[in-house]
Every structure is written in structure tokens, then in C-alpha cells.
Amino acid sequence: MDWFLWLHAEHGIKLTIFYDHWDRGRFIKGIWTTIHLSFVTIVLSIVIGIIGAWFQKSRFIWIRTIVQGYIQFFRNTPPLIQLYFFYFAMDTFLSGIFNIHGGILGSYGWAVVSLSFFAGAFNVEIFRAGVEAVPESTVESAISLGYSRRQIYQYVTLPLAFRVCLPALNNNLINLIKTTTVAYAIAVPETLYVANQIWSDEYNVLEMMNVVWVIYIIIVGFLVWLMHRWERSTRIPGFGQ
Amino acid sequence: MNPLSHIINSTDLPVMKPFNYTVSAALQARDIVKFSLNKRTALVLILVLTAWLGIDAAYAQVQGDPNQTILQTLIKWTPLMFFGPPNEFGGFVLNITVSFIAMAMGTFMGLWVGIGQVSPNKIIRRASWLTTQLFRNSPWLVLLFYFMFLLPYTVEIGGIRYDIPGWIKATFALSLPIMANLSEIVRGAINSIPTGQWESAQSLGFTRRQILWQIILPQCIKRMIPPWMNWYCILTMATPLISILGVNDGMTLTQHALAAEARSEFLIPMYLWLMTWFFIYSYPIALYTQRFERRFTITT
Amino acid sequence: MNTSTWDSAQPIVSLKDVHKSFGDLEVLKGITFDVMKGEVICIIGPSGSGKSTLIRCINALNDIQSGSIKFQGQEVHDPELDKLELRKKVGMVFQQYNLFPHKTALENVMMAPIKVLKQNQEEAEKMARALIRKVRLVGKEDSYPGELSGGQQQRVAIARSLAMSPHIMLFDEITAALDPETVKEVLVTIKELAAEGMTCILVTHEMGFAKELADHIYFTDNGVIVEHGPPNEFFNKAKDPRTKEFLSQIL
Q: Which domain holds residue B82?
């Protein structure tokens, strides 16, 4: 702590988040917001992905078309615009219809919705490809052994599909964490936003930018490592490689 | 082989059939035209257009404002949103330009960093790996902030002060994650070439540099194209981020337009209008990438 | 490469007590033999006996832990030795052919003389066409490897190595990936090569070929040379029980 004060006195490097109680408090809150925003959107996007993959197999062509439309829409339009669309356009529109004042969801809520649907669109494709990668012959042998459809799904398809999906899924989830920074644009108090507030108050743009960059690299780097460990531990020798 | 390769930014690249560099395998103008007239693309575009006319009709009914329908408003603002303010380079065109330049820069740098990652020299290898990891793991918005604040606003060449426009700094910032991701693609492609190629070339007395440039890299190009095109789409979808930094791109100008109209019923259509442009630009590219990959990939 | 002290009365390739390990696993446990210029040598043995590793040590594709391999009197694994120069004189053909898929057959054969030996384009092309004729692939010059059969690709691979005018040729199980009909066409090519006086070292499973052409046969098992001799002695009067067991299994 004293070292940082010294750093300021001697070299003019202002790292107030380390010695100033107020700044430190809000910065840590900001990091925490990033973390739980990421977590919630990851979970929701996986749920959306599973549901979407399920409906993609539907017998009805109009359901399949809707799912396909959803995927193509969220994959071929910019996530920032999607966010603005939900927060400004949809919020106002729905408020008008249901006659609610002050918006339906806050900025955090709409960020969750927008990002979950965004990542969910990619997940639908990932899960679908994973299920398709399970060899037909494997499923047939399960059928001829007398497994019910649900059992086949649970004991044969999902475990194999999961391992095929995992690298792509991990990649998508890590990208999602990086994408949470767009929530800055609608004033969600995540790391980048809070850092902006701090450097506006303390005039230490360079220091704060460096800290933010390093923090994200640490978080993302740690998760990348974690994902690799997970992939390696679930790897089946000789399958899929 | 992992069938998800076209989505993954990883080293799991599709296994390619042995190929000929004959003209039929290359991207011909004929292919593009045939592709654009493809049933599916046309169908999607027609659907989008119909949706717009439908929205317009619906709104016209609800609002009953004789002065301006939605469609008229959109058309009124389109030149600004598309081309930017008069005498200034901006708008959607700026988004596309940024994506081109950033992709070109990133591809060029990424090629070298990727080759560095497989270098026998330990220092080069480490430095390349570090660079790649650094820019792969950084959020793009953070990079934008970082470089837009920290690169100078003016530069002095030969005694004359030049202003560096914001969009140029933004382009540079966006080229860095592209460099990192492309470096991974290049590394993966080089590693996916069978070692027999290296060995037989070595046995013939080729130097390492000759082997890399004359034998290995030419074989890598085809397998790098699907992930490369995928990253281009991702980059294009990321360009609106520059609006947060104050650049007058399509997103900023849409917001200006909305502020000028100050009516909430234009919110949804305006945003959708801008999104449609991105969609029309990106969807055919995504489709073509899939087709390209399907044509040249062996599925197991 | 300094070959002034070597003459053809001395062995062109000479191995002395060569040891090679991959990590903890010792694959070659003291190999010693000599090859004279113009000889055809066959190395046979069960899988995992180290035959491929052995032949790859000769042109320094693999390194060795101890012992010496001399080519034309020069120590191959001398760190000072320019390996590129060595490889211009030692030709090698692989089991998987390893042709460059993005070049035509003719280009495959021409490429090394132009880029490595710095020959001029026309000369190299003339020689390449002659070599393709020699391996009986006239008409396939402009085909890509993907369009050729296994046997044809292997013959292009042989022509490609010959284009460098090597002093010896190494063959690493070149017929193992081919079906029996195509094996013949490749072996005919080797036969002609040998008849012209090229020194050949082959790792092979083709016993008929070894019987017909080899000047000397070496049988390796578990990293050592168990027995060796001219084909007559080797096939009919094998002494070691391991040799006899191996021969009884394959013949």
C-alpha cells in the first residue's frame, strides 16, 4: 500500500485503486460485476443453446425456420447494436405496450438478455454439430441393444457429443467473457465502466488502462487454462482426434 | 476430424483433400455471380425486404401520421447513416472500410507472428507466443480504449503537423486481435501438414526457409481460408464498437438520427435498418464460407 | 563436403556401433556394418526392430546418441557437417511417397534441382522428363499427385530423388503402402537402378526382391543385427534361431 503511495510521490504513477478506500471499493465491485455478468450469461446461453438445438430437430418446418432465423440474425448482426436494440428500442416498445414506467429491465438485465441470446445462437450450432458428430452406427448399436430413446440420448449421445463440442464451446464462452465489455455502452458498472469513472475522477487514464488490460488478461488467461485442463481430463484417447 | 472446425478459432482445422491449384478450384467471378443468384440467398433477401414493407405498413396504420412513414424516415436518414456527414468520411461505409483495412493489416502481421510461433529459435517462438496470447485474451473494446487514448492525436512529419483521425487509430487497435487469431490459424495450419512433407523436402536438401515458403505454406492457404473468412465476419460485427470511442460510424450516425427525430416509434425500425445492412453484408459471406469448406473437407 | 580422402575401395557407408534412443527407449543397440559402392543392401526384420530408424540415421533425419556413421569417409553426425550438402548426395524414398501435392509430377521432380542445386530451368526440365520416362510414367508429367495411383506416386518419388544425382539411394519400406500388383512396377524400377550400379540400401518386406537382387541381407531384431549374409546363405543356411523363426513366418 505504501509502495503505491511512494510510486505516486516519486514517479507520478497514480494507482489510487490500491490505496484509496473509495476507489478500491468501486473497482472491486466492477470486477465482481464482470464476473457475475459473465457467469449468468454463460449459464443462460448454454440453456438457450440446448433448447435451440432441441427445437432444431423439430418435425415442424416453421419451428425449424424460426430457430434458423434466430441463429442467423444474432450471428450476422453486431452484438453492440443488438444491445442497443434491446435496451433502447425493445425496452421502450415493451414499456409502451404494457404501460410500465421506468423500463422493464435495468441495464444489467438487458445486457444479460442480449448477450445470452447472442452467445446462445452460436451454442445452438455447436450443440447441433456435436450431436451430429456421434456416429450413426454407434446409435444403431445402442438401439439394437434395447436402449430407449431417452437412454440413448443420456448414455451414448450426450457424453460423446459433449466431448466433440467442448473445444468450440469453451472458445465461445471465453469470447463471451470478452464480449461483456460492450455492456459499458449502456452504463452497466462492469470493470471497464468503473475504470472510466475512476480515471475521470483521478486523471490517471494510463494507469487505469494498464490495470484493466492486465486484469482482463489474467481473468481470461486463467479461464483458458482451466478450460484446457477440463478438455484434457475429459478426452477419450483416439476419439475425435 | 472435428466437424465444428469452421466455427472454432483453434488448431483443429478441417482435414483437406489433396487439391489441385487449377483454375476451377479458385474463386472466380462466375462463382460469385452464380452464388448471389443462389436460391437460398435470394429467398432470405426477399424475406428481409418483405419484413420491412410489412413493418412499414403496420406502423403507417398505427401512427396515422401523414407527414412521414417509417420507410420515408429511414430513406431520409440513409445517406447520412450510410456515407457519413457531408465532407467527412463516416457511416456504414466507414465500418466496412475499417473492417477491410484492419483485416489486411491483421492478416499480414498475423502471418509473421504465426510463422514465428513455429520457429526453431526459442526467443522468436516465445515472443510470438506471448504476443498471440496477449492479444487473443484481451477484450476488443479494452484494446480500442487503450490504443485510442494512448496513440498520439497528431504526428509531425517533415515539419508539418498531421491530425490522426480517430478511425485510423481504431483500425490499428482492431487489427491486433486479428493478428493474434490469425497467428493461431497459421500455426495450426502449419502443424497440420504431415511431417512426411518436411522430411522428404529435407532429404532433398531444401533449407528450412525454402521448405516453409515453397512447400508448406502453399499447402496451408486453402485450409486457412474458412477460419480466416469467419474472423472477417466477426471483425465486421465488431466495428460498431468504434462508435463508443466517438468515431462517426454507422452506429453513431444512427444515434444522431434518432436524437434528431426524437420519436420513440422510430427506435426499433432505425436499429433494425442498420442491422439489416450488416446482415445483408455478412450473411452471404458466411454462407459462402460454409460452402467453400464443405467442398474441400474430408468428413470422417 | 570434403571427399578427397575417400576412394571407392573403401566403404561408401560405414556404421560402427551405432546407438540411438528415443527418450528412455533404446531403439538401436550397437549397429555395425559397411556398404561398398554399387552394392544393394536389404535390411529386413520384424516391426519395431529399428530398421526405419536405422536408415533415417544415415542421412541425419534422426540423430544418434553414440557410435559413428560415415558417408564417403565423412562423419554424418558431426555437428560441423553441412547437412544440406550431405542430403544432396544421399537420396531417400519414403513409404508414404510424400510428394508435394500442390505441384505436378514434373514440377515435383524439377523443383529440387532448380531450387537446391541452382540448375537452370531448361536443363532441369529436360532431365526431369528423362527421369519420368525412365520410371515409365510418360504422359503423367502434368498430373497432380492426387490424380496418380500409389505405385505411380512412388515412382515419381523415386524420380524426384534421382534428379539430385545422388551417390546412394535409401528406400524406407517403399512398397509397404502399395497393393501387390503395383508393388511389381516399383520393384522393376529399383531393379534397373541397381543394374546401373547405384548403391541402394532398402528396408523392405519383399523377400522375393531381396532374394533376387540383394548383394547382402541384414536381419535386425530388437535393435541389433542378428544375422547377415548373401541371399543364398541367408535364406537357406540361417544359423540363428530368431532368424529361422522370422523366415518361417514369412516364407
A: 5-12+20-37+69-299
